[in-house]
Amino acid sequence: MDEVAIVTGASRGIGAATARLLAARGYGVCVNYRTEPEQARALCAEIESAGGRAVAVYADVSQADEVARMFAAVDGELGTVTALVNNAAMLGPSTRVADLNPADLERLLEVNVMGVVHCTQQALRRMSTANGGRGGAIVNVSSGAAYVGEPGTAVHYATTKGALNSFTIGLAQEAMAEGVRVNAVSPGPIRTAMPSADALERAAHLVPAGRAGEPVEVAEAIVWLLSPEASFVSCANIRVAGGKP
């Protein structure tokens, strides 16, 4: 049977690299986007020109009804989802906790945490053997920020990723008996649009590898976790950070 993956926030960066790699491995891929529809459609065209199957679907993952419509669209255009990559996330403003606008934290929680919950619920309803599904795999894209806390600039972002790590641990244990594996990756500094060039350069100096990572290097870990080769792996959180703990 065909494998079908939904990658949230897939119009660029780690999400786009993951969508390309999954398509190359034979998955039908939903390229989810909230902004940048042109990039999402261009990625789908690139995948299709290489012989793959892809569809670009708009959804703000923080909105449960939009997520439900996205999964329904994928059901109709690609088939039932067997792999979910919860990649969509926001960084938020750079600020100390004392100066943090609570509304900014609320928006981060809506996207980075509740967005994962909304997408995961829809996936479980389709994947879980308890619901008549044939199983599947979920990978949550966390961050090394959860390990260090990002004092002075992004404690609020780190907090959302710490919540995602706990969600991964609990869900993995709930879902394994129903044929669904749940894992995470925690990237270090990666060349994406999310960190500024200056911030990326500063962070790269702290990486034992001596450089920032590329999106495809994270995508390789994600795709392995989704694959049959990782059939006995669940509740893992792979640090993709060039040796940085």
Question: What this model shows, in words?
Answer:
Helix 3 (64-77) runs parallel beside helix 4 (102-127) and helix 4 (102-127) runs parallel beside helix 6. 45% of the residues lie in helices and 16% in strands. The mean pLDDT is 96. It is an alpha/beta fold and 245 residues long. Strand 4 (83-86), helix 4 and strand 5 form a beta-alpha-beta unit. It is built from eight helices and seven strands. A seven-stranded parallel beta sheet has the order 3-2-1-4-5-6-7, with helices on both faces. It has a single domain, classed as 3-Layer(aba) Sandwich (Rossmann fold), CATH 3.40.50.
Topology overview:
Layout: E1 4-7, H1 13-24, E2 28-33, H2 37-49, E3 53-58, H3 64-77, E4 83-86, H4 102-127, E5 136-141, H5 145-148, H6 155-175, E6 180-187, H7 197-204, H8 215-226, E7 237-240
Parallel strand pairs: 1-2, 1-4, 2-3, 4-5, 5-6, 6-7
Helix pairs in contact: 1-8, 3-4, 4-6
Count all strands and give the number: 7
- The poorly predicted ranges are none
Question: Any idea of the CATH class?
Answer: Alpha Beta
Can you tell me the number of structural domains? 1
Sheet having the most strands: 7 strands, parallel
List keywords for this structure.
245 residues; alpha/beta; Rossmann fold; 7-stranded parallel beta sheet; 45% helix; globular
Write a brief caption for the model.
This protein has 245 residues and is an alpha/beta fold. Helices cover 45% and strands 16% of the residues.
